[in-house]
Amino acid sequence: MKFICLFLLIISGITDSRSEQYEVVGPADPVFAVAGEDVILPCSVKPSISVEDMRVEWFRLHLKDSRVHLYDDHKDKNRDQSESYRGRTELNHQELQRGDASLKLSSVRVSDEGLYKCFIESKSWSDDVTVNVRVEAVGHPPEITVDGFDRSGGLHLQCESEGWYPEPDLEWLNREGVSLSSETTETHREADKFSVKHTITVYERDDKIHCRIRLKHHMLETQIITSSNMFNSWRTSVIMISVFVVLSVIAVILIAVFARKYKEQSHLRDRHSQLKNEHSQLKKGLQYALKYSRTYKVNVILDADTAHPRLTVSDDGKQVKDGKNQIKEINGGKDRFDQNLGVLGKDGFSSRCFYFEVQVKGQTEWDLGVARESVDKSTMYMSPEDGYWIVGRRYWRYQARDSSDHSISLSVKPQRVGVFVDYEKGLIFFYDVESSSYIYSYTDLSFNKKLYPLVCLGNKWNENSTPLIICEDY
Predict the structure, then answer these.
(1) Pairing between strand 31-34 and 126-136?
(2) pTM greater than the 0.70 cutoff
(3) Nearest-CA neighbor of 53 among 2, 121, 152?
(4) Residue 420 CB-density burial (10 A; 0-12 exposed, 13-18 middle, 19+ buried)
(5) Confidence of residue 63 (pLDDT cuts 50, 70, 90)
(6) What is the pLDDT of residues 289-325, one digit of tens each?
(7) With contact defined as beta carbons under 8 Å apart, do 71 and 91 qualify?
(8) Strands, DSSP E only, in 332-383?
(9) Exposed, middle or buried, 365 (CB in 10 Å: 0-12/13-18/19+)?
């Protein structure tokens, strides 16, 4: 009788063990991620049984400090987590009930590229799967410059770009899309980013030349039209050299005659040159913002949890307006604006460029721009020193919050304002969308935290109920 009981217990144990057997499965192909964005690393069990009572561990292969995430005893245990993954990993505990142990990795870095192991262990069984993660960092749009002429009249073109990973392919194409051979190529690597520079000589006039840079899943392209005027300029230069010899003799005489007058007016000329240079830089910046704003447009959704209690944010997060003094109760001590009628976007950005537009038509008091992550929302004066870079309209005048209030003179009242941010170059550019005219810019900045879109209806004395609208039709 004892022998029969023992036999039944063994058979029962074998049956339980087999019933708990499962296979851990993942993607057959590499998972591609974009630097600065979030990515999901798939991992699940087959058949789809709950794994919330099991141990789920993610770790990197071939690394000494390899633990990425640990779930055990119904909770996350990341005390021994690798420092580089702190605060960037997350398991969906509800999905664990359905056998899904996929890992969300936030703010992807180039250093995150590699092999990951998803290991799932029950009391009597365990299995694992390897996930191959590939990272791509998209650099700046390629810039084409004219680098002179050769003696036979050929036009030297140079194309360069930086901030890519892995090393990108650069290709020249003509109007018909035929590939052209580069004459010289340069590639440099700094830390985890590549910069490339290629040159080419073209002889065809009125042709459209493309410079294309691409990775496996991303591509950026710039073009230039080689006009006849470009090719004629080198001949003009030869003629001008002969004329220059004659003019040089005359110039010596003129310089002696007008030397005194030159000294008296030198200050005025220097100032004129400075203003001309500033205007040129502003024009160049405006052209840069206009050219790439559509490429880097982002979907801004306003975060009602950050809004001043008097504001009303639409359900889709695209509009905000004054609640006509009907102050709402603050839920759970949320970190809200309490001096200015402001609200932040839900998502922040910490790499490359991004662009959004705000309709301000009909509103007499407004500010818009970007704010640094974890900014102090209780400050009255939103300045760059406090982590705010904004322009706006207050007390019937347009202004920017630089070192002090900087008045802005505009010939046309803007109805829609575009905000273009180049995070890596430290540039924030504001312009009137309808007239494509310059409003203001912040330059030579340095960021180390995420930037969040910001819109504001001025201070709490503003009672204009016209909403500010995040535009989608661009």
Answers:
(1) parallel
(2) no
(3) 121
(4) buried
(5) confident
(6) 778 777 889 999 999 999 999 999 999 999 999 876 5
(7) yes
(8) 340-344, 353-359, 366-372
(9) buried
pLDDT at residue 19 is higher than 60: no
Do 220 and 235 sit in the same domain of this protein? no
pLDDT band at 31 (very low <50, low <70, confident <90, very high): very high
d(CA 174, CA 204): 10
- Given 191, 210, 226, which residue is the final one in a domain? 226
- Picking from 291, 293, 315, 289, the residue whose alpha carbon sits closest to that of residue 302 is 315
CA angle (316, 321, 323) in 5-degree steps = 110
pLDDT of residue 460: 72
- The CA R_g of the chain, rounded to the nearest whole Å, is 31
Q: 127 and 154: one domain? A: no
Q: Looking at the structure, do residues 338 and 450 belong to the same domain, yes or no? A: yes
Please check whether residue 187 is in contact with residue 160, taking contact to mean a CB–CB distance below 8 angstroms.
no
- Based on the fold, state whether residues 321 and 458 are members of the same structural domain: yes
Instruction: For the beta carbon of residue 74, count every other beta carbon within 10 angstroms.
Output: 10
Per DSSP, which regions of 80-206 are E strands? 89-91, 103-105, 114-121, 126-136, 143-149, 155-164, 169-173, 179-180, 184-190, 193-202
Given a cut of 90, whether residue 359 has pLDDT beyond it is: yes
Tens-place pLDDT, residues 262-298: 555 554 455 445 444 445 556 667 787 778 777 889 9
Q: For 98-117, what is the mean pLDDT?
A: 95
By the 8 A CB rule, do 430 and 360 touch? Answer: no
Strand order across the 319-322 sheet:
311-313, 319-322, 468-470, 353-359, 416-422, 427-432, 437-442
Tokens describing residue 282: 């502003």
**151-169 per-position pLDDT tens digit:** 777 888 999 999 999 999 9
- Of 80-89, 173-182, 304-313, the one with minimum mean pLDDT is 173-182
211 Rama sector, left if φ>0, alpha if ψ -120 to 50, beta otherwise? beta
CATH number, domain with residue 91: 2.60.40.10
Domain count, the chain: 4
